[in-house]
Amino acid sequence: MREISHSTTKPEFLPVLGFVFSIAFWFLDSIVDVLVFEEEATFIDSMFSPEPIEQWMRMMVILLMFLFSIYAKKMLIIQREIEDELRQHKEQLEMTVNDRTAELSNTNQQLKDEIENRKLSEIELERLATTDPLTSLTNRRKFEECFIRENEREKRYSAGLSLIFCDVDRFKKINDTYGHEVGDRVLKKVAQVLQNGIRVNDTAARWGGEEFVLLVSNSTAESGRALAESLRQKIFEAEGMPIDTISASFGVTNVHEDDVLDTVIKRADEALYLAKDNGRNRVEVKWKE
Predict the structure, then answer these.
(1) d(C-alpha 99, C-alpha 86), whole Å
(2) C-alpha torsion 120→124→129→131, nearest 10
(3) Which of 131, 213, 235, 272 could form a disulfide with 251 if both were Cys (CB 3.0 to 4.6 A apart)?
(4) CA dist 229 to 59, 84, 152, 206, 283, Å?
């Protein structure tokens, strides 16, 4: 918006200027009458004793000049008042715009914060809904979704998919002897070993109690056996266990295209019980041809 500024002329000086111009006009008109129109009267006579008609004409011009100066003064005062009012409106408008801009900026920031908080809340809710609260592994419900997705992928690409069941040996005795707090620490440590021992694309989940389940992509039962053996040894030799001599048994099976989760779990569970029956702290495989 263009800056509004006052004129430099002060209204109260206009009548004075009108008076000065009137005197100047009288003086100049006297000179013109003597020099241009070559009247017989002298300059002094023309100045102070002009002819009646000349005097009347001069008085009319002076009166008009004086009235114009009064009118110009009034117009200039009105202009000043309008300029002051416009300036006040401009300042008020700028303040209103600045206030509304700040308000809108604050509102936009609040909306952004609210959206971000909602996104974080949704992420946290999703994490809570899909994560085991004790071990921070995938929970059983989320694992079932992962199995369906990976099984469909296996049907398309036939890259190999194996499932590994893991059970902490004699866990009830650990709880009875050392208490549930120590038992929980054992489960957390086993979960950490399992999670660190698999690839990013594989899934480790807590199935329930002291049982864990792993879904390994691009894997056969034989490569699944090798992974399970590696994990078994890492658990047995893990440092930082709350008690000594923690071991786990593993059951491994492969996944066929006509499998569903229940049939795969059943085979892996049978392999796990075979490992338990054969002395624990070992890996057993049950194939599906």
Answers:
(1) 20
(2) 140
(3) 272
(4) 126, 90, 27, 19, 6
Coil, strand, or helix at residue 59?
helix
User: Are residues 162 and 216 in contact, defined by beta-carbon separation less than 8 angstroms?
Assistant: yes
The SS3 call for residue 33 is helix
Residues tagged active-site: 210
How far apart, in Å, are the Cα atoms of 127 and each of 137, 139, 213? 10, 10, 19
Write out pLDDT tens, residues 87-131.
Answer: 998 999 999 899 898 889 898 998 888 888 888 878 777 777 889
Long-range Cβ contact pairs of 207-210 (< 8 A, separation 24 or more): 207/140, 207/143, 207/165, 208/140, 209/171, 210/167, 210/168, 210/171
Q: What is the pTM of this model?
A: 0.62
Alpha helix segments (H runs only) across 162-220: 171-178, 180-196
Q: Which strand (E) or helix (H) includes residue 80?
A: helix 52-130
